[in-house]
Specification:
Radius of gyration: 19 Å
Number of domains: 1
Structural class: alpha/beta
Number of helices: 10
CATH architecture: 3-Layer(aba) Sandwich
Largest sheet: 10 strands, mixed
Shape: globular
Length: about 325
């Protein structure tokens, strides 16, 4: 197994790849957004989604995003806007029971305890079913001229992503094996991007991840810990070495806290936000989607070559296998 590891410096001398730039977007582009509701009749569960649309009205690949504990479809909009500007339909899903209602509807002194209870296996299973339901609904909308999405959804090329609890949701949907023996994998998902992933608390990580057959990109930071869930950096870093080789990538941003992958700081943050972190996240995630969902050779060459060096700082770490 070949593993490539680099400590990269943004100021290093790098030959420019003028033919491929994952940060290039149309100036002043603002994506159209649709706030919609998906109904799961079997579970009697309604959940909101936000759809960011690219400027082109032709069929486009789809990227799903699952928020972290206590989040909503409105979070991490910087990702949705950039991905839409790059030609993707970005669908941000909100999960009732582990969304903003967990803290907004409870007194401040009870919020931590309530959020801990919300980070449960039952809510993980509901989240997985939410994504299955979203994909089912997108298939129906794709065939419905009245939906506003007819002709705009390329359901043959779907990526899944998420942050924290949303990363765990993504892991479940894209190949991770759980101790209870269930597979929640959805074969419609062709690539997965995990912000703040985590390895199983029990068992062998290699057994948990040996079913991962699609490309995965992992992103974490050297200070990426969360007070709820008690996930430490060791758990996050244990995922990559446990993955089977082939189309697997890991980014570790130096100094990045858990909130680095979100729009804003979180209570308890101790580090000043580094503006280059979002630049690196957008560049690497876009190149990953371009390579895996569009089959762009230039994007794959950029990822596997010197491309990441152009957006990362000296103490950031990048690995591929």
């Amino acid at each position: 197994m070949l593993v490539l590891t680099f400590l990269l410096g943004a100021n290093d001398s790098v030959a420019a790849e003028s033919f491929y730039d994952p940060l290039a977007v149309t100036e002043n582009f603002t994506p159209q957004t649709l706030d919609l509701t998906v109904h799961n009749g079997e579970l009697k569960r309604d959940f909101p989604i936000r759809v960011y649309l690219p400027s082109e009205e032709s069929s486009a690949p789809i990227v799903l995003f699952s928020h972290g504990l206590g989040g909503s479809r409105e979070g991490s909009g910087y990702l949705g806007k950039h991905w839409a500007a790059r030609g993707y339909v970005a669908v941000f899903v909100q999960h009732p029971g582990s969304d903003t209602s967990v803290w907004r509807e409870n007194p401040a002194e009870e919020r931590i305890a309530v959020m801990r209870r919300a980070a449960s296996p039952d809510n993980l299973l509901l989240r997985v079913k939410d994504i299955h339901g979203v994909l089912d609904q997108l298939e129906r909308w794709a065939d419905d001229p009245a939906s506003g999405l007819s002709g705009r959804l390329d359901l043959r090329h779907v990526g899944m992503s998420g942050h924290s609890f949303g990363a765990l949701t993504t892991q479940a949907l894209s190949g991770q094996r759980f101790p209870i023996g269930r597979f929640a994998t959805d074969s419609r998902i062709k690539a997965a991007l995990l912000f703040s992933p985590s390895s199983p608390r029990r068992g062998d990580p290699e057994e948990a991840f040996d079913n991962v057959s699609i490309p995965w990109m992992l992103m974490t930071g050297t200070r990426d810990v969360a007070p709820i869930g008690d996930v430490n950096l060791g758990s996050r870093l244990a995922v990559f070495p446990a993955l089977p080789p082939g189309g697997k990538y890991e980014l570790v941003l130096y100094g990045a806290e858990h909130s680095a992958f979100a729009d804003r700081s979180l209570p308890g943050d101790r580090e000043n936000r580094n503006p280059n972190h979002h630049r690196a996240i957008l560049a690497l995630s876009t190149a990953f989607w371009d390579a895996c969902l569009r089959g762009r050779t230039a994007a794959k060459d950029w990822l596997d070559g010197d491309g990441p060096r152009s957006v990362l700082e000296k103490r950031d770490r990048w690995q591929a296998k």
